[in-house]
């Protein structure tokens, strides 16, 4: 059976690696230098890094130079997100050598542009479906952006290669993933899904891994790693079979 990919997260705000609760600005816990965090996950055996520019996502500036430095330094695959909303920000993100980018707000606000870049860049483009219930949220998760399943159908028809699905109510809470949401999204699309939000234990990772046959490809792990609920080595071992 295909194993679940794990993507340890490094979210950068004001130059620091941070974790938020429910994605709320102001709820940051700081974990220091983002490059040190990324190198630690790489050293522990990660095959992927999920790298987010939170200031760019919130519209409070950006960490573009720092993010580019991290992305360029990694030997592993990098999924890059936050504030990638137009040709310039997309070109800068892709120029870091990241494996793929994850578009959020743009998929809600500028669908024609997203359709164009999906056509141009194929599987280097993923779309982040950040949801409360079944309502999508953009601009740092502060604004409603339409219905999850209508948007998913549109993006599917445009050839979107993969989705990163975040339950905002779970994100940063260590309360367990929303398995029902993940199963429902997998039932609605034949594209791979990366799960995000709520992972708190190795059992949570095993539960997400049980959805691999339905289309879940990977899981983003943030707070649980920083809070040392388990090590990345233990997590990789837990999903290796
Ligand atoms: O990851 C977070 O905790 C987060 C919190 C609040 C807003 C965004 C967050 N992360 C990711 O940012 C991109 C969306 O950025 P944009 O809308 O394209 O500018 C997306 O991957 C979110 O999951």
UniProtKB/TrEMBL annotation:
This is Phosphoribosyl isomerase A. It catalyses: 1-(5-phospho-beta-D-ribosyl)-5-[(5-phospho-beta-D-ribosylamino)methylideneamino]imidazole-4-carboxamide = 5-[(5-phospho-1-deoxy-D-ribulos-1-ylimino)methylamino]-1-(5-phospho-beta-D-ribosyl)imidazole-4-carboxamide; N-(5-phospho-beta-D-ribosyl)anthranilate = 1-(2-carboxyphenylamino)-1-deoxy-D-ribulose 5-phosphate. It is found in: Cytoplasm. It is an enzyme of class 5 (isomerase). Gene3D superfamilies: Aldolase class I. Belongs to the HisA/HisF family. Its EC number is 5.3.1.16, 5.3.1.24. Keywords: Amino-acid biosynthesis, Aromatic amino acid biosynthesis, Cytoplasm, Histidine biosynthesis, Isomerase, Tryptophan biosynthesis. PANTHER family: 1-(5-PHOSPHORIBOSYL)-5-[(5-PHOSPHORIBOSYLAMINO)METHYLIDENEAMINO] IMIDAZOLE-4-CARBOXAMIDE ISOMERASE (PTHR43090:SF2). The keyword Zinc-finger does not apply. The active site is at 11 (proton acceptor), 130 (proton donor). InterPro entries: Aldolase_TIM, His_biosynth, HisA/PriA, HisA/PriA_Actinobacteria, Isoase_HisA-like, RibuloseP-bd_barrel. GO terms for biological process: L-histidine biosynthetic process; L-tryptophan biosynthetic process. Its main location: cytoplasm. GO terms for molecular function: 1-(5-phosphoribosyl)-5-[(5-phosphoribosylamino)methylideneamino]imidazole-4-carboxamide isomerase activity; phosphoribosylanthranilate isomerase activity. GO terms for cellular component: cytoplasm. Involved in both the histidine and tryptophan biosynthetic pathways. Pathway: Amino-acid biosynthesis; L-tryptophan biosynthesis; L-tryptophan from chorismate: step 3/5; Amino-acid biosynthesis; L-histidine biosynthesis; L-histidine from 5-phospho-alpha-D-ribose 1-diphosphate: step 4/9. SUPFAM superfamilies: Ribulose-phoshate binding barrel (SSF51366). NCBIfam families: hisA-trpF. It comes from Actinacidiphila bryophytorum.
């Amino acid at each position: 059976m295909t194993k679940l990919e794990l993507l340890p997260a490094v979210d950068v705000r004001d130059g620091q690696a941070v974790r938020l609760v429910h994605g709320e600005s102001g709820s940051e816990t700081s974990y220091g230098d983002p490059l040190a965090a990324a190198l630690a996950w790489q050293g522990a055996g990660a095959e992927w890094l999920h790298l987010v520019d939170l200031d760019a996502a919130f519209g409070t500036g950006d960490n573009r130079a720092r993010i580019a430095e991290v992305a360029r330094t990694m030997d592993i695959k990098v999924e890059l997100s936050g504030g990638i909303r137009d040709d310039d920000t997309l070109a800068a993100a892709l120029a870091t050598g990241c494996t793929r980018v994850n578009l959020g707000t743009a998929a809600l606000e500028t669908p024609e542009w997203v359709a164009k870049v999906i056509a141009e860049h194929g599987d280097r483009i993923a779309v982040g479906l950040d949801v409360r219930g079944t309502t999508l949220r953009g601009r740092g998760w502060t604004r409603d952006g339409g219905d999850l399943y209508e948007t998913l159908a549109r993006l599917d028809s445009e050839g979107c290669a993969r989705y990163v699905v975040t339950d905002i109510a779970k994100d940063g809470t260590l309360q367990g993933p929303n398995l029902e949401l993940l199963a429902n999204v997998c039932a609605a699309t034949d594209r791979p899904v990366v799960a995000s939000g709520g992972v708190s234990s190795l059992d949570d990772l095993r539960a997400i891994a049980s959805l691999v046959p339905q289309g879940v490809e990977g899981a983003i792990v943030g707070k649980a790693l920083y809070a040392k609920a388990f090590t990345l080595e233990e997590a990789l071992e837990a999903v290796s079979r």
